[in-house]
Every structure is written in C-alpha cells, then in structure tokens.
C-alpha cells in the first residue's frame, strides 16, 4: 500500500503545512502519501502522468485544483476544506485590511462560503467572487475594482490576477485541522478501496474460474459482465456484448425467461446444446446474476454425488462373470440379462428361493449405463408395512412419533441415478402397491407426511419366487402394477434345472469358502456326481451351505463320495440315491417343484422339532422366508 494516496497542493505554503501535518500526525503512515505540487491545468497534466506510473487509490487537493482533478475520474478526490475561520484569519492578518471598508473573497464555489458571517464580524462590505479561468477572473476582478475594492482574499488564480490589477491580496490558507481531517478521510477511503479491490479481484477470479457461464444484467437487462465461459458457450467475446440487451445472445434469453429462472431453473437450447439457466436478483444493486451450465455437466455432478453415496455401501458387488455356469439354460439366462442391461426398462426376475436372483440383478446394474450410480436393495418381506413405507419413500420431520429430526431420505431417493432392487416384491403389502405404481409411472416420490414431490431417476428391478399372475387372480397383487413390473422378464432356473453347472459351482464355492481351512481340498468326480443327483430344494444357497459343511467334515486334502453321503445324510436323513430321477421333474414342473419344496420344508421342520432357525439353516433359506412360506395360506 506504499504511496497509495496522492496529495496535490496548489501552492508551496500549503505543501509545507501538509508535510508538517504528516510529520506530526501520520509518522508511521507517511510512506503512504505522495506529494505533487501543481495547480489547475498543470496539475491535470502531472497527475495524469503520475497515475499511469503509480495509480493512487485516492487524491487529496484543494479549491479549483481539486475540482479539475475530480473531473478526471481517476480516483476518489478528497477536498481540503476552507472554513469561515480560515477566511477570517486571512483578512485580519493583513495589515492593509485594517482600514479596508470593502473587501472581496474570491475562489471556486467549493471554497468560498460564509461571507455574510464575515461581513457582520468585521462590519465591512464583502463581495463574493466565484472564479473560473484566469481570463474570466481578470474581467470580474476589474469590474469589482471599479466599485472601489480595498482588499482581496482568495486562491492562487485570483491572487495572480489581483497582483496584475494592483489590488492588495492575500491567499487563503487552510488550517492544520482542515488538512488533518482531509488526510484522515483519505486514509479511510484508501483502506476501503483496497478492501473493495481485494473483494473485486476475488469475485473476478471466482467468476472467471467458474465452470458456469456467468452473465450479470442491469435493471434494463443489459449485459454488464460476461465471463470467459460465457464467451465459449455463446461464441461471442465480451467486448461485443457488454452494454447490449441480453436478447442478442439468443431468442430464448428474454426478460420473462430470466425472471422465471429466478424462481426455478430453466432448460434452454443454446447452439444445439441443452443448458440449465439459473438466475438471482440483487435488488439493492439493481442487478441480476445469471449462470448457465450444460445439462450433461449437471448430470455428471449428480453422478459424482451418487458415487459418494455408493461409497456408503450402496454398491453392487457382483458382475456377469461371477455367475458360474456353462449349461444351455444358464447361457440363455445370462445372454438375456446382458441384453436387458443395455435398456432402462423395468425388469421382473422370477425364480425359486436361493437361485441367485440378487447376484443377477447386481450384475445387470454393473453392466448398465447406471453402473456408476448407487445400487439399493430392499427385501419387501423383511420389514413391517408401516416401516417399509418410510424406508422406501422417506419421511419429513414430525411425520410420526419417533421420526428423526430433519426427516429421512427414502431408498428411492438414495437410488437416484442408479438402480433399486425390490426383492420379494410379491410380499409388498396391498396398501403400498398404489404408491409404488405411481413412482413407476410418474418417476417421482412423496415422503411420508410431506406435501411436495421429488423427481427421481431410478431403474427398478423386482424379484419374486411367487406366481404373480396367480396373485393377481386371487386379488393379492394389483394387476396394473404387475404389468408395469413385467415389462422385461428373466426366469432364474433352479439348481436341478441346471445340474450340469453343479461341478463348476462346487469348485467355485470351494475356492471362495476355502478360507475356513488352511488349504482348499479337491473333490472327487464321484462326490460331484452324488451332488448332481440331489434335488436341492434350497438351490444355490443350500449348495453353498453343503460345500461349507463338506470343508469342515472332510479329512485330509480331498472330499470323496463318503464325505458327501455323510453330509447329505445330515441334510435329509436319507441317501441321495433314492432321489427322484431328474427327468421326471419336468413333468408338471411348477406344481411338482412346489409340492416337493413344501414336503421337504415340513419334513425338515419335523426333524428339527419345530425349531424355525435350525430348519431354515438346513433348507438354506432365511428364517423370515420360512415363516412366510409356512403361514402364507
């Protein structure tokens, strides 16, 4: 801040007083002041040159010189005021004025005032003379001289002219107090200007480095600021558009559109690109700040936000390669899933419990364009109806007793930009089905207890082990929701239907579950053949449990047929050799499989003396699923 205040005294005596005041009152800040003695037109030339080399934040001067410098608009000008006491002191101190009956006080209009008070105090005639150029001042003083003027107190111009006309004259000096006040005000203004410049530079840096196109409009919707991003968006340079109406940038950028954007963002097409227009009014400044951002960029930022949500656990872990199997039925199922992953339509996955429906759904998500978004899974059978509603759709503060302060986001909201998996959709309470239907149709949710709706972008994949068409006939599932879910459909084959995949599945499970032992044992072909003959009502989940059991029961580095027979005996209490041949299972498949599953369930439950937990574990299903199957009817 060295030399940021320029002081321009019109005459030497004033300069000496200014230096004295600086020494006395501003010793620590003296380096902030630069003094340039000059008057009127001379001052104009010197100050213009000085400002180019060392721009000052504020200028201090007096009288006509201050008025000239003010007209240059280089910096704020602080005037050293001339008080009535200063004029009075000048008149009294002049010896020749002692006998004067008629005196003149001359100067610019920003200097002379209080002449009536002086006339009363000195009891003399006082003539006020407003000076201009030296020629104008000469003419006016000559007219006053003819009227019999005895003495003149004035500024440098009027003093020079008075001397030429032979009129006794003395320059009006400013007091140290007036000089001190002017310099103090200059320091305050310079500090304020410095802070404003720092803020302005900060704002300019923010605006220029913004990824958004930024426009600032005045009250007439003329462009007052146009950053570099705006230049790129509109292919116009700031020089061409500043000071012109905003409509020159495009027919869609009207005053009405900008007013509307102050309430809600608007999407505009600019040079074949979709842009989001947002606007903010600054009433006190009479300005409107507009920002434009590409829709694609907004979507990218939303994707980033969703990635952060995924870091909290909303992520799909499985991929298509994780689904083991080389059978024809498995290949067809995976091929269909891969093709459906390329679309954004709703998918319904059907199949018995334990067939790996969630693994398939996660694989579809990771193969789709939504793979960078969150993956949210919810079991519709695992939560009570009142809790399921708030979990799915969220709630506002005070929606019910025990609601968290500030409310809670629902799973649909968390899944925005990604996929939501509704497992066991057949168990969705009938009362909630209309709400889910509306979400699928309108792509928006309303929180429990809330009034506003929230737009969402979510792909829905549902799964069930029930016959939903039959559920519709029985009145347990809405027909319109069924058809809304059943746009694309994938059926998960049972393990018995894909028995030729069992060897590959067993070897994969041995590797993944091998952490329970120091080394992973090998399994004989005879042992694998026995596993292939077993019906597996619990499907892959049950097979996984069996492989873990084999790892724990087997001795040495291999699993043989004896180990499998022993493990299966614990499972069923019977040898697998008596299981029905696989071929007979295709006759009346749906009915036969269901009946066999129910028989297996009741047999295991009886063997476990009604213990639900142990029975569910043996069946390879969750206890809530076993409850549902037992009490569904």
Q: Could you please describe the fold and organization of this structure?
A:
With 633 residues, this protein is an alpha/beta fold. The protein has 5 domains: 5-81 and 178-189, Rossmann fold (3-Layer(aba) Sandwich), CATH 3.40.50.2300; 84-173, PrpR receptor domain-like (Rossmann fold, 3-Layer(aba) Sandwich); 210-297, 2-Layer Sandwich (Beta-Lactamase); 320-491, Rossmann fold, CATH 3.40.50.300; 499-631, Helicase, Ruva Protein, domain 3. 46% of the residues lie in helices and 15% in strands. The chain has 26 helices and 22 strands. The strands form 6 sheets. A 5-stranded antiparallel β-sheet has the order 10-9-13-12-11. The protein has a 5-stranded parallel β-sheet with strand order 15-16-19-14-20. A hairpin with an 8-residue loop joins strand 17 and strand 18. Helix 6 crosses helix 7 (156-165) and helix 24 crosses helix 25. It is rod-shaped, with a radius of gyration of 46 Å. The two termini are 87 Å apart. The relative contact order is 0.05.
Kindly summarize this structure in a few lines.
It contains 26 helices and 22 strands. The protein has 633 residues and is α/β, with parallel strands linked by helices.
- Under CATH at level 1, the class of the largest domain stands as Alpha Beta
Strand content: 15-25%
**Are there runs of 5+ residues with pLDDT below 50, and where?**
573-591
* CATH architectural name of the largest domain: 3-Layer(aba) Sandwich
Rg of Cα set: 46 Å
- Structural class from helices and strands? alpha/beta
Number of strands: 22
Major β-sheet annotation: 5 strands, antiparallel
Distance between the termini: 87 Å
- The CATH topology of the largest domain is given as Rossmann fold
Overall mean pLDDT stands at: 83
Could you state the CATH homologous superfamily of the largest domain? Answer: P-loop containing nucleotide triphosphate hydrolases
Number of domains: 5
